[in-house]
Design goal:
Blueprint lengths: L2 H34 L2 H19 L18 H10 L1 H32 L4 H22 L6 H22 L3 H29 L5 H25 L5 H31 L1
Helix pairs in contact: 1-2, 1-5, 1-7, 3-4, 3-8, 4-5, 4-6, 4-7, 4-8, 4-9, 5-7, 6-7, 6-9
Length: 271
């Protein structure tokens, strides 16, 4: 790994760290405020925090472009064509959306499980915070030891790990403490997975549409996460073990697709 690539991987690890911090501090703060005061106050303060974040962004210094590659604006259809016809990006979208789907469901599953086990929904915030804390710990390790090797290979490896950890969560969803610990493990597995997907985007997005590729893929991920949240709300009656197992199976299916698609692309390239 040359020096530029090492800096790139470390930057991606710091990006993953910001997600880990928000995934930890947000749910933990909501859990505390909802328990001590009220869920309504927690919701109001969350809304205010978004406004504050927007204002803070305006104060960030602008960074001058160092690349001589001119980035052009491509239509939505053009970006979609690039995403679907660049094998590495296509596979990244599939596994990202697959992992985001049960990831979005965790908050709903956690609240329903806490209500069932503890008799109150506030305990769900601590379950989500455990996932975030695991993600934060994994991200901190990545800033010290960035991922090495080919990004797509890393992505596939950690996709499989994410699928396994959802299965572990399904088995652990018998007691509150067991699920708390299992979610922390799942969060830790999510950190290198996310960093690896960033590496795929960095390596394989065409220079002239890099920004649009990043935002487009993030949009697909958010949409999938939102769909997972909505569906989990409709299916909470099935219970946490079954929903978490289904999440692991979805990620596992995406892993199988990505591996087969990659092998198919390699055979075509050799023929």
């Amino acid at each position: 790994m040359d020096e530029d690539e090492q800096h790139q991987r470390r930057a991606e690890s710091w990006d993953a760290l910001t997600y880990g911090m928000s995934g930890t501090l947000g749910p933990a703060a909501v859990a505390v405020i909802a328990t001590v005061f009220s869920p309504l106050l927690a919701l109001i303060l969350l809304s205010i925090s978004v406004i504050v974040a927007v204002l803070l962004i305006l104060w960030l210094p602008l960074q001058m472009r160092t690349s001589h590659t001119e980035e052009t604006v491509v239509s939505e259809h053009g970006v979609l064509h690039i995403l679907l016809h660049t094998g590495q990006l296509r596979r990244a979208i599939v596994v990202m959306m697959a992992a985001a789907f049960p990831g979005g469901a965790i908050s709903v599953i956690a609240v329903a499980f806490a209500s069932e086990q503890l008799g109150n929904s506030a305990g769900g915030g601590w379950l989500v915070a455990a996932f975030g804390l695991g993600n934060l710990a994994g991200s901190l390790l990545l800033t010290l030891f960035p991922l090495r090797g080919e990004p797509e290979r890393n992505m596939l490896l950690y996709t499989a790990l994410v699928a396994v950890t959802f299965g572990i969560c399904a088995l652990a969803a018998q007691t509150y403490l067991a699920l708390l610990l299992a979610l922390a493990v799942a969060g830790a597995a999510n950190a290198p997975f996310f960093a690896a997907t960033l590496g795929v985007r960095s390596n394989y997005a065409p220079d002239h549409v890099r920004g649009q590729v990043f935002t487009g893929m993030a949009g697909f991920k958010i949409a999938s996460s939102s769909a997972g949240t909505a569906l989990a709300g409709l299916l909470t009656g099935l219970g946490a073990p079954l929903l978490l197992l289904a999440g692991g199976m979805i990620v596992g299916a995406a892993y199988v697709y990505a591996v087969l698609d990659r092998k198919g692309a390699s055979r075509l390239a050799r023929s």
